[in-house]
Amino acid sequence: MPREDVLEGKVALVTGASRGIGYAIARRLGRMGARVSICGRDQARLERSAAAMRGEGISTLAVPTDITRADQISTLVQRTEQEFGPIDILVNNAGTGVFGPFHEFGETEWNTVVDTNLKSVFLLCRAVAPEMMSRQTGHIINISSLAGKNTFAKGAIYCASKWGLMGLTGCMAEELRAYGIRVSAICPGSVATEFPGQGVKNASKILQPDDIAHAVATLVTQAEGSFISEVHIRPTRKP
């Protein structure tokens, strides 16, 4: 795919971008001309992904980060701003899940999922929003899930985190729209990634990471007078 340069001069921060959906999103934004900061916990994998993006001519910064920790998020945002400038686009993509009867899990599993899928978004948005508000511009895109709209057996903790994320996204959208900041949620169905607990699925009948990246590209190129608050993505053929 050729470079489009419609985001020339923009700075994007994408979490969970060493692989899968996050990598596809970061790469797409970079091909659109943005300078991209990516983070993840696996430093070696993160650096490989960053090197691949740089190989395509994308200005890329890789910062190993535990996004459930406020101190590491502060470092991530500061390094991004020092390297590239103020953040124009924040994509909260990092996520995890556990699946099984709710009563068989303990606080450790609850905390891991909720802290990763929900608390981290609060922390990142809190860190980035004031600068966006001062400049009266910005995009915040939260990668949620259709599990944030529907319930299913053995998905209690994951669904709880994504339903919470949808509530957080909606409230932030209402608070920040007056500042010219557009906050959106993307809710995909199953995607062909290494996401935990997915089991074996026919990859030809589920979504691909680039499908989600395409939705992000659509949101960040929306005309200034409007914003798309929520996107649901399903495969054409049911798995």
Describe this structure in a few short sentences.
This protein is α/β, with parallel strands linked by helices and 239 residues long. Helices cover 43% and strands 15% of the residues.
Report the mean per-residue pLDDT as an integer.
94
Q: Point out poorly predicted stretches.
A: none
**Intertermini distance:** 28 Å
How helical, in percent, are the residues?
Answer: 40-55%
**How many discrete structural domains?**
1
Biggest pleated sheet = 7 strands, parallel
Task: Tell me what you see in this structure.
By secondary structure, the protein is α/β, with parallel strands linked by helices. The protein has one domain (11-233): NAD(P)-binding Rossmann-like Domain (Rossmann fold, 3-Layer(aba) Sandwich). The protein has six helices and seven strands, in the order βαβαβαβαβαβαβ. The protein has helices at residues 20-31, 43-55, 70-84, 107-135, 156-176, 209-220; strands spanning 11-14, 35-40, 60-64, 89-92, 138-143, 181-188, 230-233. Strands 3-2-1-4-5-6-7 form a seven-stranded parallel beta sheet, sandwiched between helices. Helix 4 (107-135) packs parallel to helix 5 (156-176). It is globular and about 45 Å long. The two termini are 28 Å apart. The relative contact order is 0.14.
Features:
single chain; alpha/beta; Rossmann fold; seven-stranded parallel beta sheet; globular
Chain-wise SSE layout:
Elements: E1 11-14, H1 20-31, E2 35-40, H2 43-55, E3 60-64, H3 70-84, E4 89-92, H4 107-135, E5 138-143, H5 156-176, E6 181-188, H6 209-220, E7 230-233
Parallel strand pairs: 1-2, 1-4, 2-3, 4-5, 5-6, 6-7
Helix pairs in contact: 1-6, 3-4, 4-5
